[in-house]
Amino acid sequence: MSQTVNGSAALAIRDLVVTYPGPPPVRALDGVSLHVAAGECLGILGESGSGKSTMCRALLGLVPEASVAGSMRIGGRELSGLDEAGWREVRWSRIALALQSTASLNPVLSVGSQVAEPLRVHMGLGEREADRRVAGLLVDVGLGEWAAQRYPHQLSGGQRRLVLLAMALACEPDVVVLDEPTAGLDAATRNGVLDLLGRIRAERRVSLLVMSHDADALEVLADRVAVLYRGWLAEMGPARDVLDDPRSPYSWALLNARPTLASVKDLRGIRGNPPDLTVVATGCPFLERCHQAREAVCAGGRPALAPPLGETGTRVVACARGGVVPLLSARSLRKVYTSGGPFHRQRTTAVDDVDLDVREGEVVGLVGSTGAGKSTLGMLLVRLADPDGGTVTFDGTDLMAARRGQLKALRAQIQMLFQDPFEALSNRLTVREVVREPLDIQEIGDASSREAAVRRLLVECRLPADDAFVSRHTHELSGGQLQRVALARALILEPKLLVADEAVSMLDPSEQAKMLQLLKHLQVQRGMAMLFISHDLSVVLRIADRVLVLDGGRVVEEGSGGALLVAPRHAVTRSLLAASGRDVLFGRGGREDPGPTPNVVDLEAYRSLGTHEDKSHEDESQGGGWT
To answer: In whole angstroms, what separates CA 95 from the centre of its chain?
Structure first.
């Protein structure tokens, strides 16, 4: 094997552009630059249509119908511009490809003869030596010598994948490109393939370029991960950094949509449709689907790869805003209530030194028992109450320093959905007047456009929008209908942040489920952020990307919903899990002693749990009249 110096680039790609002829032409790769070091595994993560398979084929000169520009180098050899004779010198011996589809295997030739073919053609081995090498290769990939006499149809899908891998390794190339090596495999076979690839890489010091939509597989296998979108690199860096804490808006949305064993929230895909590759993007390619896009910033030009805002190191993102940014940030937030007379004054710390971030497009759950400080914190974050210490920043603006005029404009971007719509909404107003009121206060549009907006929001919130319904007074509606009217009112100004304070706790289980589904649907479609406050952890886990547990005014635990469910660290979190049906979840018969937290969760039992009606209410006061 022709190996490069350890740590140098075995494969280097610079400004690679691949365009398929039209009409209209399709630009499948658009200026990709990356490298793979000797012995390294680089994972390429992306949706279907992102350009992964095109990259595989371009690296082996298998796109004769396409226009290829840019540089591709194996060691010191330039691949761009090679004729077919030049490609034959490189394929198999310097760079090899294991395709996703096993249809590339010839059904009328034995496995042994197909694995032997590159050995005979490219290495000039005789039949006996080739057969000996084939036997060793089949053993190396976990099949055994017996497989040489079989035909492809006599093997399982996973075994045929291993045959393709044996063929790719046959001529001891510097780089092996694998196209979706785990796609379509059962869990046991998939894990076996990943173990095998790791062992082969260690033993042979071969470089791997792995194309996959399976982030969990790349987390096991890859040293670094590059995220590909529309033929364009959105993020690249150490695998753990990119997969555990993605900083590109596209990476964040893609990874947030994946199911995991610990997934308990309802999953939603990335909003919008995949891009039209016949149109060359002039601004950020992810602009139309991005939850934090700013037209003035993001449409002006293609963002270059650079370290994320506030970071140093080897990770880079292509984002005009510096990667995923916080929309709302609180630091050292504190609120103390004083009660009693002059000689017996009592001080109660409702919020105690809280730090909190809500990123654009993210749903953050805030959970705690009654009196934990949840509602107080929610009101501080939107300045319905003033803190006794700390700062709150919203979209780059100091919320505490905002004056009346500025605060009015900010409140158009921050809306609240309260626990009790009967208290929050005036019973003297009609549905039309309730939903329209924020537009009236903000002086947005004329009477006709306001009426159209009211009816559009009612439809979005799955309510009637006919004359009879909009003319009804709020006291004529059911609790579920009225809460959806309150949601329509909160969304009519198209806020960037929705604070939902116990928004489903007064609803029956059926209405709870409908409201949670509606909230998540609208949050994804609008790309807005949400702070979801509740005492019921089972409800929070259904909707939140990240959860903060509050007790005594302090954040005592923070993590993804799955992490808190599988391995809660704090006693308060374990107590909230028990109160939310943990005994059923973990198959316990009694409720007196929740016992230690198990490592394995019966997720099917969890998913079968209905959300339950809880008639308890927060002692903390609610605000009203938020516009």
So the answer is: 32
